[in-house]
Amino acid sequence: MMETASDLLSASPLYQTAVLDFWKDYHEKTALMEGLQLSVQAHPALQFGNHYWRSISENGIEFSTPNAGINHFNDVIAWSRIFNGTEVLCAINLHPHKQAVVYVTIDEHLHGTGSKMKLLYGSGSVPEELNVEDRNGKSIRLTLPTRALVIYG
């Protein structure tokens, strides 16, 4: 069963607060918002693609997604938008003081082992490309600075 954004936000008051705080801070930084807007305009999947929440793992073995029935809080939220056979992965590190290094599941039918996803947008210092690995179907290993948003495609 696919969860909606409202399911995610209702999962925990921690999510509500963290997500709202993240976007409030992000919105106040004009350069970041302009860069994000240009990325959205340049990549149709971000506007028109189907939305999929993505499971996350710190160890590359145990993957989970935020679930409204569980009182569990992850610092990273990840989702994909898929349009015309192209996947664009978005991820946010909500933690105000800690970098996150996580594995994120991607669509295994759209990515071959050893292929790469390239950075389309990123705040902070992030890798320009990521290797697709055979974990939980297919996944990539993300490094996210504190309070950062990244988009890979």
Notes on the protein architecture:
It is a single chain. The chain has helices at 5-10, 13-27, 30-42, 44-48; strands at 50-53, 56-57, 76-83, 86-93, 100-106, 116-122, 129-131, 138-144, 149-152. By secondary structure, it is an alpha+beta fold. Strands 1-3-4-9-6-7 form a 6-stranded antiparallel sheet. The radius of gyration is 15 Å and the shape is globular. It starts with a helix and ends with a strand.
Number of strands: 9
Average residue pLDDT: 82
The N- to C-terminal Cα distance equals 24 Å
Strand order of the largest sheet: 1-3-4-9-6-7
Q: Rg, please?
A: 15 Å
Total count of helical runs of at least 4 residues: 4
* Regions with little confidence, pLDDT below 50 for 5+ residues: 1-6, 68-72
| Order of SSEs | HHHHEEEEEEEEE
- Strand residues, percent: 25-35%
How would you sum up the major sheet? Answer: 6 strands, antiparallel
Helix percent band: 25-40%
**Helix and strand composition category:** alpha+beta
- What spatial form do the alpha-carbon principal axes imply? globular
